[in-house]
Design goal:
about 300 residues, alpha+beta, four-stranded antiparallel sheet
């Protein structure tokens, strides 16, 4: 402190400074959460009960059908949906006028219910994965198991029990343990849902007006659809064979992230060896691509 600055050391000034320090500490303590873990769990359980109260007959009707298609109990699906506000909000939006045209009900291995789900236990938290349900529009959760697609064609009305029976449609799909590409999922859905429905459909309306040629046109259409699915399958197989270059390793990302790390990594033998292994694998991949390109070139000749 500069010598020419005067500080008041009279008793009133000292008391004032002490009170200021005490007030600051009191404010810090107010911001600090004093809730115990048990109290927090009770608070989250109450929020879960509130979410449960938002599920109406329309919600449970869809869950009953989804549970039947998934060969499980509707209570299991409901338990998963109650884990997050986001799941309830997505589900509710589906029934509103102008709301979502479709929702996805996932039933798959996921991380155990989080602490704020309202059903967290120490035993559940110790599991690496947990089979549970969620409702999403496909943008928030990764699809890794079974799925019921619930969709409606008319979004210009608010849905009630009557509309559930007349306007709601369901489709089942699941991931394939061998091919997890988006294209393969579309093909599988078409083969499982669209093709059988078209083959058994007897209401072709104005598509076929002449009864004499109805059978031939229907057979021709289903054959064209089957050929189209086979065409997509060949594309998917070609895409699966596409060589993908491996992303550069973590040490290189850290090396490039900050200048001060450059010298430390240049002296790190483990980091250098990891980069060398990555470079060798990348060179082999490039050589493989070059060989495949030459093979295609010679075959075309």
């Amino acid at each position: 402190m500069p010598s020419n600055v005067y500080r008041d050391y009279t008793p009133p000034a000292i008391d004032r400074r002490i009170n200021e320090v005490l007030n600051r500490r009191a404010g810090d303590l107010q911001n600090f959460s004093t809730e115990t873990t048990r109290e927090q769990l009770e608070k989250y359980k109450k929020k879960r009960v509130v979410r449960q109260g938002l599920l109406k007959t329309t919600h449970r009707h869809i869950l009953d059908i989804a549970a039947f298609m998934l060969e499980t109990d509707s209570n299991v699906l409901e338990d998963g949906i109650l884990d997050k506000d986001e799941y309830i909000e997505t589900f509710n939006d589906f029934f509103m006028e102008g709301g979502r045209r479709a929702v996805l009900i996932y039933y798959q291995p996921m991380v155990p219910p989080p602490f704020d789900s309202g059903r967290w236990t120490l035993q559940l938290a110790q599991n690496s994965s947990f089979i549970r349900c969620c409702v999403t529009d496909g943008s928030t959760e990764k699809f890794t198991g079974k799925c019921i697609i619930v969709y409606r064609l008319n979004s210009g009305m608010e849905f009630g029990t009557k509309q559930l029976l007349q306007e709601i449609y369901y489709a089942y799909t699941e991931t394939d343990e061998f091919f997890l590409s988006n294209l393969h999922a579309v093909i599988a859905l078409m083969l499982r849902v669209n093709v059988p429905n078209i083959q058994c459909n007897t209401h072709w309306s104005n598509v076929i007006k002449n009864a004499e040629i109805e059978s031939k046109r229907k057979d021709k259409f289903t054959e064209d659809l089957a050929d189209f699915c086979k065409y997509l399958e060949r594309i998917d197989e070609d895409l699966q064979k596409t060589v993908q270059l491996e992303q550069y390793p973590r040490v290189l990302r850290e090396y490039l992230s900050a200048e001060e790390k450059i010298m430390s990594y240049t002296m790190n033998d483990d980091a250098i060896q990891e980069l060398e292994r990555w470079l060798k694998r990348t060179i082999k991949s490039i050589q493989k691509v070059r060989y495949l390109c030459l093979s295609i070139f010679f075959q075309s000749d």
